[in-house]
Design a protein that fits this description.
Chain lengths: 450, 450
């Protein structure tokens, strides 16, 4: 494929893969080495989107011509010889809870229809500086609440893609874009990753500025990164923190603790069995970790904090706007209105206490291992799925990785969730690399060449 | 006084001052230079306390023999030749809102009668490490609320010493101890300093750990330092932050802004006139600063946050305990119970907004200048006095200094309050040094010799 000239010819890599199917790392390296152009990759992504979007509905906004124009500008910029960012020329999807000055930013809500902020969110600015080409805005549930988004699970259109970074997870897994940006307050990146079979990274609280995004509860507001491999995930994370770009597989066997936390009784038998088999096959002993009883309150704390902030933010809106909201948002606002200030402070103190307890647990373990979701993707008619297994870690601000290493009874993916120490993002990604290395991924090779 | 041997002889410095009247700096230097012993200074302080305490009531706990024993230990420690801390051998009073493992810690409340924590507060540990000899616990209002403490103003026993670090201010001004530790959430150091004529420093929020103290509202919890001169105040502050130990007078004339903030209509005519005369006599132009209108909400925000935290902390106590509380505490709890979580979050957001506005104001000024209190010390029957002039700066976490540079119509002191940039504690103390230098202090000389 060296020195290829026409877009048609560039649509296939030397191993027969279409350009939209290539890994982010391969694409970035090839663009940097002038073996690919940004516009050719963009065309392949847009072609895939054109074919699949009517069914998958991963995008809330996409202007193909504008996206092409941005890709061409990336190529022109490169031709100027100026230094390139780590994601130069790479198509990336951005969940529509981030402000974009050149695209609508509606947070999945009718009430913000046509909203065009004047400033990019900080995370979007960072992607631009890293050279990424933002393709469009991916679908989200309304204000990221537990409510279906328009998106369908690309692996089985009759199933939920999870919430609320559903569009980002679906776009990545369906090979519309190699990377997509999500957010997570409770489970919004981990759940869609588990349901759709994506690799996801929710960094430590404070990892990235959330300025210009839909922050529901400040202490729980995280970015979420979605990709099709762990290697791509680290490339993505490296754009935010350079030290994560070259994460290495942990050299020593990690000390892993197996957590069956709050909500474990909702885990399906096939998911339990799949996790048990994975753990039994590991080359290290995995210690069972009983969470302190205080963690039984975690979901109550999460929902209480969320509802209080919803009441604060949306409580004074006109009745008509309130009635236009999705039921979970209306219910959250109503529940939040009846919370007292004293109870709010109690919830904050509990959150602090749980964070301290979680930090203590992670002194003895390199990572905690649990499921990302209670089972395979729910059927659409069963609702968007439960984020119960992610909530405690979001509340405590700990970094998590979701790896699509398990399969359920319908051969749909189930994520393995690894939880790391606050600030130990690099170590956590190292454990994740170790785990993906020791678990055979259906015998597939990830080798790509351009 | 060199080589003096007997306690009797040591009680007088060479200029005729008693040892308890000497400045903290003089005492520390003399002890370090072996011209004084810690026990001789302690004896002089205890003698003064024995004479005055029945009327002033500055102490909630004092065990003279135990204090002597601690002073002797300081002398023994010095005899061992080990390195000395910056406050070595110096008698210091500690407001009884700090936990002490070797003295009762009752936070001024019947409900905590006889409480003996197992750990010292972090600030108390720091004083010990600095070599200070904690004399005893100084009186406070109940949990630091706006309610009289047992203390009387040492300058006029019929007047209020302010709240809630009243015992610390009275003990310092009455020459019972050269330094005393207070706290401030709203005005608890600045008001007693103004009423009693002490020099006070409330550092930037975050300056010192408040662990082990009576924290009412975390974002407003500050230590407060009280002394009889600015020089002693910087010695004291230097024990917490070494860079403050040798603050120098500002070399350039400071850019000062004169603030007549919320509550200015309660300022008495004599206080206004005294401030106007002081400003008119300064060798620099002082700019009038109109606070943004958002500051009109400052008091509401302060009280709302306080009440919410009171309801959270005390709301679930038995009725009998509740009824034992002073009226302002009961009223605060009741008011706090009716606050909603949404309103609490609104108050937090307003506090953030005010902090940002205050920070912007201080870009144009080296310090803001205002009064520490609305006038002279109130008569005891009029209540403990108003902290309204300090509240906005406590809320915004800005460092303040109170200097007893003014006199009211009854010749009682009125403090000048300087407000600095967050983190600009050293610069603020430099401005305070400049101001005290240019304002003649009744022609008194502060020269001391041992």
């Amino acid at each position: 494929m060296n020195h290829a000239s026409g877009t048609q010819r560039q649509a296939l890599a030397s191993n027969g893969m279409r350009l939209n199917e290539l890994s982010a790392r391969t694409i970035v390296d090839a663009i940097r080495g002038r073996r690919l152009t940004a516009i050719s990759v963009m065309e392949a992504c847009l072609e895939r989107i054109a074919i699949r979007e009517p069914e998958v509905k991963a995008w809330s906004f996409l202007d193909a011509d504008a996206a092409r124009q941005r890709a061409r500008l990336a190529d022109e910029y490169q031709a100027s010889g100026l230094p390139l960012g780590p994601l130069h020329g790479l198509p990336v999807g951005v969940k529509d809870v981030f402000d974009t000055s050149n695209m609508p930013s509606e947070y999945g809500s009718q009430s913000l229809r046509g909203r065009r902020p004047t400033e990019d969110a900080d995370a979007v600015s960072l992607l631009h500086r890293a050279g990424a080409v933002v393709v469009g805005k991916t679908s989200t549930s309304e204000f990221g609440m537990y409510h279906p988004s328009p998106t369908h699970n690309p692996l089985d259109l009759s199933r939920s893609p999870g919430v609320s970074s559903a569009g980002s997870a679906a776009a990545v897994v369906d090979r519309m874009v190699p990377l997509a940006l999500g957010t997570q307050h409770t489970a919004s990146t981990t759940l869609p990753a588990s349901f759709c079979g994506a690799f996801a990274f929710k960094p430590s609280f404070g990892f990235a500025s959330m300025q210009g995004s839909n922050v529901l509860v400040p202490r729980m507001a995280h970015i979420g990164l979605l990709a099709r491999s762990l290697d791509d995930l680290t490339l993505f994370a490296g754009a935010f923190d350079h030290s994560l770009a070259d994460v290495e597989v942990l050299r020593h066997p990690p000390r892993l603790g197996l957590v069956r936390g709050p909500g474990w009784d909702s885990v399906s038998p096939d998911a339990r069995q799949a996790l048990d088999r994975l753990v039994a096959g590991l080359p290290v002993a995995v210690v069972n970790v009983d969470l302190p009883s205080e963690f039984d309150m975690a979901l109550e704390v999460v929902l209480g904090l969320l509802n209080a902030h919803l009441a604060n933010r949306f409580g004074a809106l006109p009745e008509q706007t309130f009635r236009s909201f999705c039921p979970p948002l209306q219910e959250g606002i109503v529940a939040g209105r009846s919370l007292s200030a004293a109870r709010y402070l109690e919830l904050e103190a509990m959150a602090d206490r749980l964070s301290a307890l979680a930090a203590a647990l992670l002194c003895d373990h390199d990572a905690l291992l649990t499921l990302s979701a209670p089972g395979e993707a729910t059927r659409l008619e069963e609702g968007p799925g439960s984020g119960v297994l992610s909530m405690p870690w979001s509340l405590c601000g700990l970094p998590t990785v979701s790896l699509p290493l398990l399969r359920g009874m319908n051969d749909m993916p189930i994520g393995v969730q690894l939880v790391g120490r606050h600030g130990g993002d690099r170590e956590l990604l190292g454990v994740a690399a170790w785990l993906t290395d020791v678990v055979t991924l259906d015998g597939k090779s990830s080798h790509e060449q351009i």
